[in-house]
């Protein structure tokens, strides 16, 4: 037993000596490797070559998936930022347009408040099927709105109140195809003043319809011989008893003789933009004209020349 035990010990010691000798031999810098080293190195190189490409492909695949997800998250964040920017820009433009409209309405109110009572209202409905005919505003009988009151924007007249309910009203537009009420109007014509300078002369006529092809109001019954030219302003005359006086309507585009050559027909570009109706003003006369031509506050009885009311 001691012999075999010593024999194993001797074998282990010899093995250790050989291992140390081999390690020492192989650790030196040599110009040529031994054939066992070359065999081992070639074997491991071949195995590494076989395993490296699949491992690299798998690693590249997962790296690509990670990069694609990062790009997706970044694009989603950028898209959300862009959508927010578009919404903010649209809101800013809408607020700016509303501010401009309200400023124009305030300026118009300051110029008209001496002669008329104005009530501001918002357009709450406009049916696409009757886009050129009517709009609905958010004021009615409870707000003092009455049938046939004139309605305008800061730029000019757009129509009259057609019907009234408690909290809303329907406004018939000047562009309505079904409008039956004619509007008495004046054309403001510049004429030389004998004492020097320029003065305005009014030429009367009646706005009877709207030409949808030309997008112009049609004014008829203009006396023959009156010099009607482009860019002359047209205002309401107030003679019809419905629309107050001196509300801006539009500007002359052209004029031509009627079919019989007895009167003239003028085509008017409306001052108001009928495609953008958001805030409007309902006009109530602050004064009426007495039979003697004097201004009388609304609600005060007027005395006729014969003494009647």
Automatic annotation (TrEMBL):
InterPro entries: Cell/Rod_1 (IPR042177), Cell/Rod_MreC_2 (IPR042175), MreC (IPR007221), MreC_beta-barrel_core (IPR055342). GO terms for cellular component: plasma membrane. GO terms for biological process: regulation of cell shape. Keywords: Cell shape, Coiled coil. Residues 85-119 form a coiled coil. Residues 123-284 form the Rod shape-determining protein MreC beta-barrel core domain. Involved in formation and maintenance of cell shape. Belongs to the MreC family. This is Cell shape-determining protein MreC. It comes from Brevibacillus composti. The gene is mreC.
